[in-house]
Write a structure and sequence with these properties.
This protein has helices at residues 14-25, 62-78, 99-111, 152-165, 212-216, 288-299, 360-371, 398-408, 414-424, 428-432, 448-457, 463-470, 479-492, and strands spanning 4-5, 7-10, 30-33, 49-50, 83-91, 122-125, 141-150, 169-171, 174-182, 185-192, 195-201, 204-206, 228-239, 247-251, 257-263, 267-271, 275-276, 311-322, 337-340, 349-353, 441-442, 446-447. With 496 residues, it is α/β, with parallel strands linked by helices. The chain starts with a strand and ends with a helix. 48% of the residues are buried.
Length: 496
Protein backbone atom coordinates (compact mmCIF):
# COMPACT_ATOMS: atom_id res chain seq x y z
CA UNK A 1 0.00 0.00 0.00
CA UNK A 2 1.56 3.31 -1.10
CA UNK A 3 0.68 6.98 -1.08
CA UNK A 4 -1.43 7.06 2.08
CA UNK A 5 -2.87 10.50 2.77
CA UNK A 6 -3.25 11.72 6.32
CA UNK A 7 -6.68 13.12 5.50
CA UNK A 8 -9.30 12.68 2.80
CA UNK A 9 -11.72 15.63 2.68
CA UNK A 10 -14.99 14.96 0.87
CA UNK A 11 -16.69 18.13 -0.33
CA UNK A 12 -15.40 21.23 -2.11
CA UNK A 13 -17.62 23.83 -0.51
CA UNK A 14 -16.54 26.44 2.01
CA UNK A 15 -16.21 24.00 4.93
CA UNK A 16 -14.30 21.33 3.02
CA UNK A 17 -11.83 23.74 1.43
CA UNK A 18 -11.28 25.62 4.71
CA UNK A 19 -10.51 22.34 6.51
CA UNK A 20 -8.19 21.20 3.69
CA UNK A 21 -6.34 24.54 3.87
CA UNK A 22 -5.93 24.43 7.64
CA UNK A 23 -4.87 20.77 7.65
CA UNK A 24 -2.30 21.23 4.88
CA UNK A 25 -0.87 24.23 6.71
CA UNK A 26 -0.44 22.07 9.83
CA UNK A 27 1.70 19.60 7.91
CA UNK A 28 -0.87 16.92 7.07
CA UNK A 29 -1.01 15.36 3.63
CA UNK A 30 -4.47 16.08 2.25
CA UNK A 31 -6.63 15.02 -0.67
CA UNK A 32 -9.84 16.96 -1.28
CA UNK A 33 -12.43 15.38 -3.57
CA UNK A 34 -15.38 17.35 -4.96
CA UNK A 35 -17.82 15.56 -7.23
CA UNK A 36 -18.64 18.74 -9.18
CA UNK A 37 -16.86 22.10 -9.31
CA UNK A 38 -15.72 23.97 -6.23
CA UNK A 39 -18.64 25.89 -4.65
CA UNK A 40 -21.10 24.32 -7.08
CA UNK A 41 -23.96 24.18 -4.62
CA UNK A 42 -24.69 25.73 -1.21
CA UNK A 43 -21.48 27.75 -0.99
CA UNK A 44 -22.27 29.79 -4.09
CA UNK A 45 -25.97 30.15 -3.22
CA UNK A 46 -25.61 32.23 -0.06
CA UNK A 47 -26.68 35.81 0.67
CA UNK A 48 -22.96 36.59 0.27
CA UNK A 49 -22.45 38.19 3.66
CA UNK A 50 -19.74 38.02 6.28
CA UNK A 51 -21.97 38.86 9.21
CA UNK A 52 -22.75 38.11 12.82
CA UNK A 53 -26.36 37.18 12.15
CA UNK A 54 -28.41 39.84 13.89
CA UNK A 55 -31.56 37.72 14.08
CA UNK A 56 -29.70 34.87 15.82
CA UNK A 57 -29.61 37.02 18.95
CA UNK A 58 -33.36 36.43 19.32
CA UNK A 59 -32.67 32.70 19.26
CA UNK A 60 -30.04 33.09 22.04
CA UNK A 61 -27.27 31.84 19.75
CA UNK A 62 -24.80 34.12 21.52
CA UNK A 63 -21.74 31.91 20.98
CA UNK A 64 -22.37 31.75 17.23
CA UNK A 65 -23.01 35.49 16.95
CA UNK A 66 -19.92 36.40 18.97
CA UNK A 67 -17.68 34.09 16.97
CA UNK A 68 -19.14 35.39 13.70
CA UNK A 69 -18.68 39.03 14.70
CA UNK A 70 -15.04 38.39 15.56
CA UNK A 71 -14.46 36.63 12.26
CA UNK A 72 -15.67 39.60 10.18
CA UNK A 73 -12.51 41.60 10.70
CA UNK A 74 -10.22 38.54 10.56
CA UNK A 75 -11.53 37.69 7.10
CA UNK A 76 -11.64 41.33 6.00
CA UNK A 77 -7.90 41.62 6.66
CA UNK A 78 -7.19 38.29 4.97
CA UNK A 79 -9.04 38.97 1.71
CA UNK A 80 -9.76 42.70 1.23
CA UNK A 81 -10.18 42.21 -2.52
CA UNK A 82 -13.23 39.93 -2.23
CA UNK A 83 -14.54 41.11 1.17
CA UNK A 84 -15.45 44.69 1.99
CA UNK A 85 -17.52 46.62 4.56
CA UNK A 86 -21.18 47.26 3.87
CA UNK A 87 -23.61 49.42 5.82
CA UNK A 88 -27.05 47.95 6.51
CA UNK A 89 -30.15 50.00 7.19
CA UNK A 90 -32.79 48.47 9.46
CA UNK A 91 -36.05 50.51 9.38
CA UNK A 92 -38.15 50.73 12.50
CA UNK A 93 -41.66 49.61 11.55
CA UNK A 94 -44.38 50.26 14.10
CA UNK A 95 -46.19 47.08 15.09
CA UNK A 96 -43.15 44.84 14.69
CA UNK A 97 -40.13 44.78 17.01
CA UNK A 98 -40.05 47.95 19.16
CA UNK A 99 -37.35 50.53 18.53
CA UNK A 100 -35.75 49.97 21.95
CA UNK A 101 -35.37 46.26 21.25
CA UNK A 102 -33.74 46.91 17.86
CA UNK A 103 -31.31 49.38 19.43
CA UNK A 104 -30.49 46.97 22.26
CA UNK A 105 -29.80 44.19 19.77
CA UNK A 106 -27.55 46.46 17.74
CA UNK A 107 -25.73 47.60 20.88
CA UNK A 108 -24.89 43.97 21.61
CA UNK A 109 -23.99 43.48 17.95
CA UNK A 110 -21.54 46.39 18.12
CA UNK A 111 -19.73 45.23 21.25
CA UNK A 112 -19.92 41.43 21.42
CA UNK A 113 -17.25 40.85 18.80
CA UNK A 114 -14.54 43.35 19.69
CA UNK A 115 -15.17 45.54 16.62
CA UNK A 116 -12.12 47.66 15.69
CA UNK A 117 -12.30 48.45 11.97
CA UNK A 118 -16.00 48.61 11.18
CA UNK A 119 -17.94 51.76 12.18
CA UNK A 120 -20.64 51.52 14.89
CA UNK A 121 -24.43 51.70 14.68
CA UNK A 122 -26.13 55.07 14.23
CA UNK A 123 -29.71 56.28 13.95
CA UNK A 124 -30.77 57.51 10.48
CA UNK A 125 -33.61 59.61 9.12
CA UNK A 126 -35.27 57.57 6.38
CA UNK A 127 -36.92 60.63 4.84
CA UNK A 128 -33.59 62.18 3.82
CA UNK A 129 -30.43 61.45 1.84
CA UNK A 130 -30.15 58.15 -0.02
CA UNK A 131 -33.40 56.97 1.57
CA UNK A 132 -35.59 59.91 0.50
CA UNK A 133 -38.54 58.74 -1.58
CA UNK A 134 -37.23 55.19 -1.59
CA UNK A 135 -39.13 53.65 1.33
CA UNK A 136 -42.80 53.91 2.28
CA UNK A 137 -43.54 57.18 4.15
CA UNK A 138 -44.58 55.32 7.32
CA UNK A 139 -40.89 54.42 7.76
CA UNK A 140 -39.34 57.53 9.28
CA UNK A 141 -36.51 56.20 11.45
CA UNK A 142 -34.01 53.42 11.13
CA UNK A 143 -30.67 52.13 12.37
CA UNK A 144 -27.53 51.78 10.27
CA UNK A 145 -24.95 49.17 11.25
CA UNK A 146 -21.94 47.39 9.76
CA UNK A 147 -21.33 43.96 8.31
CA UNK A 148 -19.34 42.77 5.28
CA UNK A 149 -19.97 41.58 1.74
CA UNK A 150 -18.12 38.59 0.24
CA UNK A 151 -17.74 37.00 -3.16
CA UNK A 152 -18.74 33.64 -1.70
CA UNK A 153 -17.61 31.22 -4.39
CA UNK A 154 -14.30 33.05 -4.73
CA UNK A 155 -13.61 32.60 -1.01
CA UNK A 156 -14.05 28.86 -1.54
CA UNK A 157 -11.56 28.91 -4.42
CA UNK A 158 -9.03 30.93 -2.42
CA UNK A 159 -9.18 28.34 0.36
CA UNK A 160 -8.53 25.60 -2.20
CA UNK A 161 -5.67 27.55 -3.81
CA UNK A 162 -4.02 28.11 -0.45
CA UNK A 163 -4.49 24.45 0.46
CA UNK A 164 -2.78 23.44 -2.79
CA UNK A 165 0.06 25.91 -2.18
CA UNK A 166 0.64 24.15 1.14
CA UNK A 167 0.76 20.71 -0.44
CA UNK A 168 -2.84 19.51 -0.64
CA UNK A 169 -4.16 17.72 -3.70
CA UNK A 170 -7.40 19.29 -4.95
CA UNK A 171 -9.42 17.01 -7.21
CA UNK A 172 -12.65 18.37 -8.71
CA UNK A 173 -15.15 16.36 -10.76
CA UNK A 174 -14.16 13.48 -8.50
CA UNK A 175 -16.74 11.40 -6.67
CA UNK A 176 -15.99 9.11 -3.74
CA UNK A 177 -17.94 5.97 -4.62
CA UNK A 178 -16.94 3.66 -1.79
CA UNK A 179 -15.25 3.86 1.61
CA UNK A 180 -13.90 0.87 3.52
CA UNK A 181 -11.96 1.06 6.77
CA UNK A 182 -9.52 -1.73 7.54
CA UNK A 183 -6.82 -1.81 10.23
CA UNK A 184 -6.91 1.95 10.79
CA UNK A 185 -6.77 2.90 7.11
CA UNK A 186 -9.58 3.97 4.78
CA UNK A 187 -9.55 2.78 1.20
CA UNK A 188 -11.61 5.07 -1.02
CA UNK A 189 -12.73 4.22 -4.51
CA UNK A 190 -12.91 7.48 -6.46
CA UNK A 191 -14.33 8.17 -9.91
CA UNK A 192 -12.75 10.87 -12.09
CA UNK A 193 -13.10 11.32 -15.84
CA UNK A 194 -14.80 7.95 -16.09
CA UNK A 195 -11.95 6.07 -14.41
CA UNK A 196 -12.02 4.41 -11.01
CA UNK A 197 -8.99 4.27 -8.75
CA UNK A 198 -8.33 3.56 -5.10
CA UNK A 199 -6.62 5.93 -2.68
CA UNK A 200 -5.85 5.45 1.00
CA UNK A 201 -6.20 7.80 3.97
CA UNK A 202 -5.68 7.65 7.71
CA UNK A 203 -8.78 9.76 8.34
CA UNK A 204 -11.81 11.25 6.57
CA UNK A 205 -13.64 14.55 6.85
CA UNK A 206 -17.19 14.40 5.55
CA UNK A 207 -17.95 17.98 4.47
CA UNK A 208 -20.36 16.97 1.73
CA UNK A 209 -23.03 19.55 2.59
CA UNK A 210 -26.48 18.34 1.52
CA UNK A 211 -24.97 14.90 0.93
CA UNK A 212 -23.43 14.58 4.42
CA UNK A 213 -25.78 11.75 5.44
CA UNK A 214 -25.31 9.96 2.14
CA UNK A 215 -21.52 9.94 2.62
CA UNK A 216 -21.89 8.82 6.25
CA UNK A 217 -23.91 5.83 5.03
CA UNK A 218 -20.82 4.61 3.19
CA UNK A 219 -19.28 3.74 6.56
CA UNK A 220 -22.49 3.35 8.59
CA UNK A 221 -25.16 1.56 6.56
CA UNK A 222 -27.61 1.96 9.44
CA UNK A 223 -27.52 5.76 9.32
CA UNK A 224 -31.00 7.11 8.59
CA UNK A 225 -30.09 10.73 7.91
CA UNK A 226 -32.14 12.07 10.85
CA UNK A 227 -29.14 14.05 12.12
CA UNK A 228 -29.37 16.56 9.27
CA UNK A 229 -32.16 18.97 8.41
CA UNK A 230 -32.20 20.28 4.87
CA UNK A 231 -33.45 23.86 4.47
CA UNK A 232 -33.77 25.53 1.08
CA UNK A 233 -32.89 29.21 0.80
CA UNK A 234 -33.75 31.13 -2.37
CA UNK A 235 -32.79 34.56 -3.68
CA UNK A 236 -34.00 36.75 -6.50
CA UNK A 237 -32.00 39.32 -8.47
CA UNK A 238 -33.70 42.35 -9.99
CA UNK A 239 -32.36 45.33 -11.87
CA UNK A 240 -31.12 47.97 -9.43
CA UNK A 241 -33.88 49.19 -7.10
CA UNK A 242 -31.84 51.99 -5.49
CA UNK A 243 -28.64 53.92 -6.18
CA UNK A 244 -27.02 54.26 -2.76
CA UNK A 245 -24.16 52.05 -1.51
CA UNK A 246 -26.18 50.83 1.47
CA UNK A 247 -28.04 47.56 1.89
CA UNK A 248 -31.39 47.12 3.66
CA UNK A 249 -32.59 44.55 6.16
CA UNK A 250 -36.37 44.32 6.44
CA UNK A 251 -38.46 42.73 9.19
CA UNK A 252 -41.40 40.58 8.16
CA UNK A 253 -44.61 39.92 10.06
CA UNK A 254 -43.61 36.22 10.34
CA UNK A 255 -40.56 37.31 12.43
CA UNK A 256 -38.16 36.50 9.60
CA UNK A 257 -36.01 39.08 7.82
CA UNK A 258 -34.93 39.63 4.23
CA UNK A 259 -32.04 41.59 2.76
CA UNK A 260 -31.98 43.93 -0.26
CA UNK A 261 -28.35 44.35 -1.28
CA UNK A 262 -26.53 46.15 -4.12
CA UNK A 263 -25.27 43.39 -6.42
CA UNK A 264 -22.79 43.34 -9.31
CA UNK A 265 -23.11 47.10 -9.96
CA UNK A 266 -26.42 47.00 -11.85
CA UNK A 267 -28.63 44.73 -9.75
CA UNK A 268 -30.30 44.25 -6.37
CA UNK A 269 -30.08 40.91 -4.56
CA UNK A 270 -33.09 40.00 -2.40
CA UNK A 271 -33.30 37.05 -0.03
CA UNK A 272 -33.57 34.68 1.62
CA UNK A 273 -36.29 32.13 2.29
CA UNK A 274 -36.33 29.18 4.71
CA UNK A 275 -38.17 26.19 3.27
CA UNK A 276 -37.87 22.58 4.53
CA UNK A 277 -36.44 20.26 1.89
CA UNK A 278 -36.74 16.50 1.87
CA UNK A 279 -34.37 15.67 -1.00
CA UNK A 280 -30.63 15.25 -0.47
CA UNK A 281 -29.70 15.51 -4.16
CA UNK A 282 -28.41 19.05 -3.69
CA UNK A 283 -30.58 20.37 -6.49
CA UNK A 284 -32.68 23.38 -5.66
CA UNK A 285 -34.92 25.75 -7.58
CA UNK A 286 -37.01 28.65 -6.40
CA UNK A 287 -40.75 27.98 -6.13
CA UNK A 288 -43.64 30.25 -7.05
CA UNK A 289 -44.43 30.58 -3.34
CA UNK A 290 -40.90 31.78 -2.60
CA UNK A 291 -41.04 34.28 -5.45
CA UNK A 292 -44.29 35.68 -4.08
CA UNK A 293 -42.91 35.78 -0.55
CA UNK A 294 -39.80 37.74 -1.53
CA UNK A 295 -41.70 40.13 -3.79
CA UNK A 296 -44.40 40.76 -1.19
CA UNK A 297 -41.86 41.31 1.59
CA UNK A 298 -39.92 43.75 -0.58
CA UNK A 299 -43.07 45.63 -1.54
CA UNK A 300 -43.89 46.17 2.13
CA UNK A 301 -40.91 48.52 2.31
CA UNK A 302 -39.92 49.93 -1.09
CA UNK A 303 -42.13 52.47 -2.83
CA UNK A 304 -41.26 50.80 -6.13
CA UNK A 305 -43.17 47.53 -6.33
CA UNK A 306 -41.69 44.43 -7.91
CA UNK A 307 -43.27 41.28 -9.28
CA UNK A 308 -42.13 38.12 -11.00
CA UNK A 309 -41.61 39.97 -14.29
CA UNK A 310 -38.92 42.14 -12.63
CA UNK A 311 -36.76 39.15 -11.68
CA UNK A 312 -33.64 38.99 -13.81
CA UNK A 313 -32.21 35.85 -12.21
CA UNK A 314 -32.78 33.62 -9.20
CA UNK A 315 -30.80 30.97 -7.37
CA UNK A 316 -31.40 28.51 -4.55
CA UNK A 317 -29.24 26.46 -2.24
CA UNK A 318 -29.80 23.74 0.33
CA UNK A 319 -28.37 24.28 3.79
CA UNK A 320 -27.45 21.05 5.61
CA UNK A 321 -28.24 22.14 9.17
CA UNK A 322 -27.91 20.03 12.27
CA UNK A 323 -31.36 18.82 13.33
CA UNK A 324 -31.95 20.34 16.75
CA UNK A 325 -35.66 19.43 16.63
CA UNK A 326 -36.76 23.07 16.20
CA UNK A 327 -40.38 23.54 15.24
CA UNK A 328 -39.77 25.81 12.24
CA UNK A 329 -37.18 26.00 9.49
CA UNK A 330 -36.20 29.57 10.40
CA UNK A 331 -35.33 28.69 14.01
CA UNK A 332 -33.14 25.64 13.31
CA UNK A 333 -29.68 26.39 14.68
CA UNK A 334 -27.21 27.91 12.21
CA UNK A 335 -24.35 26.88 14.47
CA UNK A 336 -22.11 24.10 13.24
CA UNK A 337 -21.76 20.64 14.74
CA UNK A 338 -18.69 18.43 14.30
CA UNK A 339 -19.45 14.76 14.87
CA UNK A 340 -16.87 11.98 15.14
CA UNK A 341 -18.28 8.64 14.06
CA UNK A 342 -17.21 5.90 16.47
CA UNK A 343 -14.80 7.82 18.70
CA UNK A 344 -13.12 4.56 19.77
CA UNK A 345 -11.89 4.02 16.20
CA UNK A 346 -8.23 4.75 15.47
CA UNK A 347 -9.19 6.02 12.01
CA UNK A 348 -11.25 9.20 12.48
CA UNK A 349 -14.35 9.94 10.40
CA UNK A 350 -15.55 13.48 11.08
CA UNK A 351 -18.87 14.77 9.71
CA UNK A 352 -19.61 18.49 9.43
CA UNK A 353 -23.16 19.80 9.89
CA UNK A 354 -24.28 23.36 9.38
CA UNK A 355 -21.94 26.30 9.53
CA UNK A 356 -21.87 29.45 7.43
CA UNK A 357 -19.31 31.24 5.32
CA UNK A 358 -18.50 33.68 8.12
CA UNK A 359 -17.41 30.95 10.53
CA UNK A 360 -15.67 28.69 8.01
CA UNK A 361 -12.16 29.49 9.26
CA UNK A 362 -13.11 28.85 12.90
CA UNK A 363 -15.03 25.72 11.95
CA UNK A 364 -11.89 24.40 10.27
CA UNK A 365 -9.80 25.28 13.31
CA UNK A 366 -12.20 23.43 15.60
CA UNK A 367 -12.32 20.45 13.22
CA UNK A 368 -8.54 20.13 13.29
CA UNK A 369 -8.50 20.36 17.08
CA UNK A 370 -11.04 17.53 17.18
CA UNK A 371 -8.74 15.49 14.93
CA UNK A 372 -5.56 16.35 16.86
CA UNK A 373 -5.56 13.16 19.02
CA UNK A 374 -5.21 11.09 15.85
CA UNK A 375 -2.25 13.05 14.39
CA UNK A 376 0.65 13.41 16.80
CA UNK A 377 2.75 15.43 14.33
CA UNK A 378 0.08 18.04 13.61
CA UNK A 379 1.30 21.58 14.20
CA UNK A 380 -0.65 24.38 15.87
CA UNK A 381 -3.41 26.63 14.52
CA UNK A 382 -2.10 29.19 12.03
CA UNK A 383 -4.89 30.69 9.92
CA UNK A 384 -5.93 33.65 12.11
CA UNK A 385 -3.16 35.92 10.80
CA UNK A 386 -2.80 34.32 7.37
CA UNK A 387 -3.59 36.12 4.12
CA UNK A 388 -5.49 34.52 1.26
CA UNK A 389 -4.00 34.47 -2.27
CA UNK A 390 -4.22 37.97 -3.71
CA UNK A 391 -5.08 39.50 -0.34
CA UNK A 392 -1.66 41.06 0.37
CA UNK A 393 -2.91 44.54 -0.54
CA UNK A 394 -0.86 47.25 1.26
CA UNK A 395 -2.71 48.44 4.37
CA UNK A 396 -5.76 46.49 3.06
CA UNK A 397 -6.54 49.71 1.13
CA UNK A 398 -8.30 48.44 -1.97
CA UNK A 399 -9.02 51.86 -3.52
CA UNK A 400 -5.34 52.88 -3.38
CA UNK A 401 -4.38 49.52 -4.83
CA UNK A 402 -6.84 49.97 -7.70
CA UNK A 403 -5.59 53.51 -8.36
CA UNK A 404 -2.00 52.22 -8.55
CA UNK A 405 -3.06 49.55 -11.04
CA UNK A 406 -4.77 52.14 -13.22
CA UNK A 407 -1.67 54.31 -13.23
CA UNK A 408 0.57 51.38 -14.13
CA UNK A 409 -1.73 49.91 -16.80
CA UNK A 410 -3.53 52.87 -18.43
CA UNK A 411 -4.15 50.86 -21.62
CA UNK A 412 -6.60 48.59 -19.79
CA UNK A 413 -10.11 49.93 -19.27
CA UNK A 414 -11.14 50.98 -15.76
CA UNK A 415 -14.03 48.51 -15.56
CA UNK A 416 -11.82 45.62 -16.62
CA UNK A 417 -9.11 46.57 -14.12
CA UNK A 418 -11.63 46.96 -11.32
CA UNK A 419 -13.08 43.53 -12.10
CA UNK A 420 -9.62 41.94 -12.09
CA UNK A 421 -8.60 43.71 -8.88
CA UNK A 422 -11.85 42.83 -7.09
CA UNK A 423 -11.63 39.20 -8.19
CA UNK A 424 -7.92 38.43 -7.87
CA UNK A 425 -6.34 41.19 -5.78
CA UNK A 426 -2.57 41.23 -6.22
CA UNK A 427 -2.83 38.06 -8.33
CA UNK A 428 -4.48 40.20 -11.02
CA UNK A 429 -1.01 41.26 -12.15
CA UNK A 430 -0.31 37.66 -13.16
CA UNK A 431 -3.11 38.07 -15.70
CA UNK A 432 -2.14 41.56 -16.81
CA UNK A 433 1.56 40.83 -17.24
CA UNK A 434 1.04 37.82 -19.47
CA UNK A 435 0.71 40.05 -22.48
CA UNK A 436 0.28 43.71 -23.33
CA UNK A 437 -3.09 42.64 -24.67
CA UNK A 438 -5.58 40.60 -22.65
CA UNK A 439 -6.39 38.65 -25.79
CA UNK A 440 -9.85 38.01 -27.14
CA UNK A 441 -12.66 39.71 -25.23
CA UNK A 442 -15.96 38.00 -24.49
CA UNK A 443 -18.19 40.97 -23.80
CA UNK A 444 -16.80 44.14 -22.22
CA UNK A 445 -15.08 42.52 -19.18
CA UNK A 446 -14.13 38.85 -19.63
CA UNK A 447 -10.81 38.32 -21.38
CA UNK A 448 -8.91 35.40 -22.82
CA UNK A 449 -5.99 35.95 -20.42
CA UNK A 450 -8.31 35.88 -17.41
CA UNK A 451 -9.75 32.56 -18.53
CA UNK A 452 -6.28 31.12 -19.10
CA UNK A 453 -5.36 32.15 -15.55
CA UNK A 454 -8.50 30.51 -14.15
CA UNK A 455 -7.78 27.22 -15.89
CA UNK A 456 -4.13 27.21 -14.82
CA UNK A 457 -4.53 28.37 -11.22
CA UNK A 458 -8.15 28.00 -10.12
CA UNK A 459 -9.24 24.46 -11.03
CA UNK A 460 -11.56 25.50 -13.87
CA UNK A 461 -12.59 22.67 -16.22
CA UNK A 462 -15.86 23.91 -17.73
CA UNK A 463 -17.18 27.15 -19.19
CA UNK A 464 -19.81 27.55 -16.46
CA UNK A 465 -17.08 27.36 -13.81
CA UNK A 466 -15.90 30.69 -15.23
CA UNK A 467 -19.27 32.32 -15.85
CA UNK A 468 -21.11 31.45 -12.65
CA UNK A 469 -18.59 30.62 -9.91
CA UNK A 470 -15.14 32.20 -10.49
CA UNK A 471 -16.99 35.25 -11.80
CA UNK A 472 -20.63 36.26 -12.10
CA UNK A 473 -20.14 37.52 -15.64
CA UNK A 474 -22.78 35.07 -16.83
CA UNK A 475 -25.19 37.70 -15.55
CA UNK A 476 -24.00 40.43 -17.88
CA UNK A 477 -22.99 38.62 -21.06
CA UNK A 478 -25.55 38.60 -23.84
CA UNK A 479 -26.74 35.23 -25.11
CA UNK A 480 -24.54 35.63 -28.19
CA UNK A 481 -21.48 36.58 -26.11
CA UNK A 482 -22.05 33.64 -23.81
CA UNK A 483 -22.34 31.21 -26.71
CA UNK A 484 -19.19 32.63 -28.31
CA UNK A 485 -17.29 32.13 -25.07
CA UNK A 486 -18.54 28.58 -24.58
CA UNK A 487 -17.55 27.69 -28.13
CA UNK A 488 -14.10 29.21 -27.64
CA UNK A 489 -13.64 27.38 -24.34
CA UNK A 490 -14.63 24.03 -25.88
CA UNK A 491 -12.15 24.56 -28.70
CA UNK A 492 -9.29 25.51 -26.40
CA UNK A 493 -9.95 23.35 -23.35
CA UNK A 494 -11.43 19.89 -23.19
CA UNK A 495 -14.37 20.08 -20.81
CA UNK A 496 -14.41 17.35 -18.17
Amino acid sequence: MTNIYDLLVIGGGINGTAIARDAAGRGLSVLLCEKDDLASHTSSASTKLIHGGLRYLEQYEFRLVRESLKEREVLLKAAPHIIWPLRFVLPYDKGLRPAWLLRLGLFLYDYMGGRKILPPTRTVNLLRGDHAGLLHPRLKKGFEYSDCWVKDSRLVVLNAMDAKAKGADISTRTEVKQLIQTDGIYSAEILKNGYLKTIYAKGVVNAAGPWVSRVLKKVDTGNNGKDVRLIKGSHIVTHKLFDGPQAYIFQNSDDRIIFAIPYEQDYTLIGTTDVPCSKDDGKAEISEEEISYLCDATNEYFMRSISKKDIFWSYSGIRPLYDDQSDSASTVTRDYVLSLYDETNDAPFLSVYGGKITTSRKLAEHALEKLRPFYSTMSDAWTREAIFPGGDIPNTDFESFLTALQEEYPHIGRNVLKHLARSYGTCSEIIIKQNKSLGQMFGPILSEEEVNYLVKHEFVTQADDVLWRRTKLGLTLTKEESETFKKWFAENYTEQ
